[in-house]
Amino acid sequence: MIAVCLCTGSIPDTWLQPGALPALSNLLLSYNALTGSLPETWGSNGSFQSMVLLELGEVGLFGTLPEWSTPGTFQHLESLVIAGCNITGALMSA
């Protein structure tokens, strides 16, 4: 959990690599001052295979919801929090 830690900057490049953090199940980054867009590679390149909770509320991210929001990626994802972000696009259907 890295929520409310006053972190600034963009999402680390190492988190964008294929197979990044395959056993990580919960990523809470809310209430930090991150910049940039949601990575398109998350979940679709073998990274975050065990992700259940992804919380990015109020972090300052922007852009269009990436392709990873479609069925087949983030297969274990149960909760996605993007409140307070300037994100557009459709979510995957249940």
Can you walk me through this structure?
With 94 residues, the protein is an all-beta fold. It has one domain (1-94). 0% of the residues lie in helices and 22% in strands. It is built from no helices and 7 strands. Strands 2-4-6 form a 3-stranded parallel β-sheet, with no helix packed on it. A two-stranded parallel ribbon has the order 1-3. The chain has a two-stranded parallel sheet with strand order 5-7. The radius of gyration is 12 Å and the shape is globular. The protein starts with 7 loop residues before the first strand and ends in a 6-residue tail after the last strand.
Shape: globular
Strand % is 15-25%
Radius of gyration: 12 Å
- Low-pLDDT segments: none
By DSSP, the count of extended strands is 7
Q: Give the strand order, joined by hyphens, for the main sheet.
A: 2-4-6
Structural class: mainly beta
Taking all residues together, what is the mean pLDDT? 79
User: What is the H/E order?
Assistant: EEEEEEE
Question: Would you spell out the secondary-structure blueprint of this structure?
Answer:
Layout: E1 8-10, E2 26-28, E3 33-35, E4 53-55, E5 62-64, E6 79-81, E7 86-88
Parallel strand pairs: 1-3, 2-4, 4-6, 5-7
Give a brief outline of the structure.
The chain is mostly beta strands.
Highlighted features:
94 residues, mainly beta, three-stranded parallel beta sheet, two-stranded parallel sheet, 0% helix
